Fold:
Amino acid sequence: MVLLSFINPLSEEGQEIVKEKGNLENVFSSNDELIYIATHDKRQNIDDDSLIPESYGDLAIKRIQWYIERKNNKNFNNDDYSYLFNEKITEADVISFHLISQAIATKLSPNSREARFFVESQGKIIEERIVKLPEQERKEIVNRILNQLIFQESINWKFLKELVASKKISLTDLVLDEGNIILDKEDFINRFGNKFKDRAPDRMYDIIIGDSIKELILTKMIMQNTENYLQKIREMSSKIEVHPAISELSEKIAQSISELTSKYSGFYGVGVSEGSMKIGKLIKEAFPPCIATTVEGVSSGGRNDAIVLLLTSFVSYARLYPAIFRNEGVDVKISDIDPNLTITLNEILPLIYEAADNCSPPLFDDQPQEKINITSKLGFGMYENPELDHEGETTWYTPMSCEKIKMHLPQLCRPDKLCAKIGNPLSYYSRAKWLMEKEGKSANNGNSNNNGNSNND
Amino acid sequence: MTLDISSNNFYTYLWHIHGDIIFKTATLEERRRYYREEWSEKDLPKFITDELRMREFGFDHLGHGPNDRYKVFRGKDSLRRFLRYKTPFAAYISVAFYNNPRRRGDWIKSEYVFDVDAKDLPIRSCDCDGVCEICLSEALEIVNNLIDTLESDLGIKNIHLIYSGRGYHIRILDDDIMDSDSELRSEILKYVAGAEVPKLKYGNISEGSGSSYNFEHFSIPIAYPKVFTKRLKYNIQHLKGTEEIDDINKKLLKDIIKNRDLLEDNQWGIFRSKIGPRRYKNMVTGMARVNLATIDAKVSIDLKRILRLPTSLHSKVSMKCVEVKDREWFDPFKSAVPKFVEERE
Structure:
């Protein structure tokens, strides 16, 4: 039987291991035992020394590396990281897990890109480790860990509401009855046995619930607990001085992630290479469907929100600062990029005003005050026109997420294929631009874009 | 329109003959009569009067929309005095509770709301311009379905139904939901509304990781697929054929209506094969959108919205905003018509 901490490094057992064997003095010192386990794994590729983790710190970096490679590398070879799925590695793995947590929480931030990769990689590692277990052991370990994570007999979905709110679990994937998440077979048959006419209920249980929902909940809960753990370390870290090894590790993690993401750019961050994140003329052919529709005009009902909230923020960021979500937390003003407001006044506002005119009825005809609201959303206070003197009186609104658009402006959301890969219209724009550049269909110089060939599906 | 006199429902009868008498805007004199002679603080629902002083009130005095906001009342008495004296065109109360409601400061929690407006229903059987008996009763059926799902699937408690004058507000004061953010609210909304296309593929790991099964929503009579199937059936049965729904073109709409009798006995499989698998998928996608559009979603995710105050007068249509006690049998023409309307010429 594998150790529980092989799946859940945050378990009590995992914490014991860290207490006993974790030592910040040897984060980067060569660890013979670890090397031995990795090189003696039956499937491990040992041709290349750089594949073998030499120290706890190295293992920490490789854990995240594995995740990014696996997701993006078309020629990814499982055997390059086989040791990660060898239960003998448990102790070293738990220590490296806690090291990454320290490094990210203290030196980076719990909301950073690095933190996101770490939490996602942890989820994937759990999934793959569980899949590789023999069936009986798999069931048993999942039940044992779930029993530790969930204290009651049946769980109310509200117990997992954080997971629902953060979209780690979708309510629509759960079998719910009177607020309870149904996981137990007997319970399932008692509640729903008579609902199935043509199929055997116990068979339907295996198909609809089986172990998959349990494993999903287990994985997502550990991911959530990892996030909470980062937050907790963050809160405590202000009082303690960070060990140099932890600082070094955080730098190495950040560096490794940034190397890999630029290698596989187009898949991460805002989803594009640095090139298409650069400031440049607006390329309308790369607008997502919701923005393209808005530019053509919206009928009354959704006019105000579409122009003032959606289009204003989208156009201004797309034109001036498309990397906003990559550099989250950066406090940026329009004048940082457009010091004389030339672009704002000559390119951004005309596009917004034109779209407002295209509305039926034209927006400013009956609601002239919306000009003030547009100025305000650009960060220039409540005035008819943006002026440098007033900048900062309000904040420069970031573009609405797709989720918000679906709720606020459902009539505008007509997703195409590319939409499935993004969560914000601005990411769509950057990605579409990147695809257009890659296919050589767009003018790279931005000054004149050849509209002839914009339909690249 | 045929009239069932035997129902002995005076107001329905009145509406049939003189629809414009009821739905006419109330005059200032009528508003005065309402607030001075008919309105009583005893009719305020308990969920409103509890912690009344932590809510923000808003008023519309002239009929141009609420512009007198950030009002606070210490209790029922001061609210009564204000209403009697000002006789507002419309009165609103926040869904939010604040420590400092006068500034909308220090937010504590908010009710979770579903707003279903009869005039905005994307599918409704009537052809009226605003609201009428038919679409109001369909709105009631829809909110009843939503409440059933909220209670039976999600186990959500403390649900109140309000007739708003032109539709319904479901107002939820479940402690576990009230402190939650917009994200959770939108996730619940999607489930309850049936706004997501149910997944087709079900993995079964105990038979090896490779095997998975495809199930259409109607093959699974429980959980979310059941909710979706129910909403879909409702929509299909209420189609008129003149709707414009994305992903559902005229021909498809016609074929759906032609074959919808099959759904009376839940013969979904045959229905689907008549429509064809590709077009069926379009239908399902289109209907998921309709389900979302049936509810005004931005009200549900808004933590600081103000909603019409139960007991207040909806002056535009001369109807009372009232709490619905018996949601099976509620009839706005019986319970929400103010006295002055009866006496109108």
In short: The radius of gyration of chain A is 26 Å. The domain at 4-149+212-263 of chain A is CATH 1.20.930.50 (Transcription Elongation Factor S-II; Chain A). The first helix of chain A runs from residue 4 to 7. Confidence is low (pLDDT under 50) at residues 266-275, 442-457 of chain A.
